[in-house]
Amino acid sequence: MNELSLHILDIVQNSVAARAKHIEIDVLEDKEKDRLEIRVKDDGAGMTPELLKNVTDPFVTTRTTRKVGLGIPLLKFAAESTGGSFSIESEVGKGTVIDAVFTLSHIDRAPLGNMAETMESLVVTNPEIEFTYKRQVGEKRFMLSTEEMKTVLGGLPISSPEVLMWVKDTVNENEKELNGGA
Ligand SMILES: Nc1ncnc2c1ncn2[C@@H]1O[C@H](COP(=O)(O)OP(=O)(O)OP(=O)(O)O)[C@@H](O)[C@H]1O
Ligand SMILES: [Mg+2]
Questions:
Q1: Looking at ligand 1, which atom is closest to the CA of residue 15?
Q2: Ligand lying closest to the C-alpha of residue 55
Q3: Number of helices (H) and strands (E), helices first, in the chain?
Q4: Segment 124-163, tens digit of pLDDT
Q5: Which of 136, 133, 39 is nearest to 89 (CA)?
Q6: What percentage of the chain's residues is helix, strand, coil (to nearest 5)?
Q7: 141 Cα–ligand 2 center, Å
Q8: Using alpha carbons only, how large is the chain's radius of gyration in Å?
Q9: CA distance 147 to 48
Q10: Domain 4-179 in CATH: superfamily?
Q11: What is the overall mean pLDDT for the chain?
């Protein structure tokens, strides 16, 4: 995967599959510390300690005959390839936090990609889930909350074309603003 937004989409699909009701996606960038952090936090089913132990290693997990995919190992590899780090916290019945840290300036660090499309597709396919997207570049911040949006929208469905267009435009415009100037 050559864009971080695609890794994010993949990791969030795990949260959706774990029947999360709230999913928070943080993309935090700090040029001074030369660091980009992706955090996905959910209140889904969580993982047992045994699954948690195996989930980052595709080889161990194939040997146990349990079918396990590559979403988590790929993100871990992508982060560690840049000299970054990767961790998962998870508890059955509570939820999961995935944390991937990249070295911002590393040649192998993939570009963020299109977070507007990622958020749009998450909202359209999971209108009942509450998403919070937090984006930070240095001191500049942006936040999108579907819970807040729903109160403002009244009866208008969050997955209606007008609203989706707004989500996409808002994420795109803010991304430009966060990267512009400073
Ligand atoms: N947020 C989560 N909550 C609960 N379980 C999770 C979560 N994320 C991953 N898992 C568990 O870990 C397994 C491995 O996740 P991973 O994303 O690596 O592969 P996959 O989702 O099975 O397949 P793929 O991502 O390749 O389609 C999942 O099948 C699921 O059992
Ligand atoms: Mg997955």
A1: 1
A2: 1
A3: 7, 6
A4: 999 999 999 999 999 999 999 999 999 999 889 999 999 9
A5: 39
A6: 40, 25, 35
A7: 28
A8: 17
A9: 29
A10: Histidine kinase-like ATPase, C-terminal domain (3.30.565.10)
A11: 92
Ligand nearest to the CA of 42: 1
Please give the single-letter amino acid code of residue 181.
Answer: G
d(CA 100, CA 76): 7
Q: Are 144 and 35 in contact (CB under 8 A)?
A: no
User: If you count them, how many residues does the chain have?
Assistant: 182
* In contact, 12 and 23? CB cutoff 8 Å: yes
- Report the alpha-carbon distance of residue 87 to residue 93 in Å, rounded: 19
> Residue 65 corresponds to which tokens in the numbers above?
């005959």
Name residues whose C-beta falls within 8 Å of residue 181's C-beta, 6 or more positions apart in sequence. none
Instruction: Give the atom of ligand 1 at the shortest distance from the alpha carbon of 10.
Output: 25
pTM of the model: 0.94
pLDDT at 1 over 90: no
6-29 core/surface letters (b: 16 or more CB in 10 A; e: else): bbbbbbbebbeebebebbbbbbbb
Q: How much distance in Å is there from the Cα of 149 to the middle of ligand 2?
A: 27
Instruction: Give the pocket of ligand 1 (CB within 6 Å).
Output: 10, 14-15, 18, 42, 44-47, 51, 55, 68-73, 96
**Side-chain-side CA neighbours of residue 46 (13 Å):** 10
| Cα of 118 from ligand 1 centre, angstroms | 18
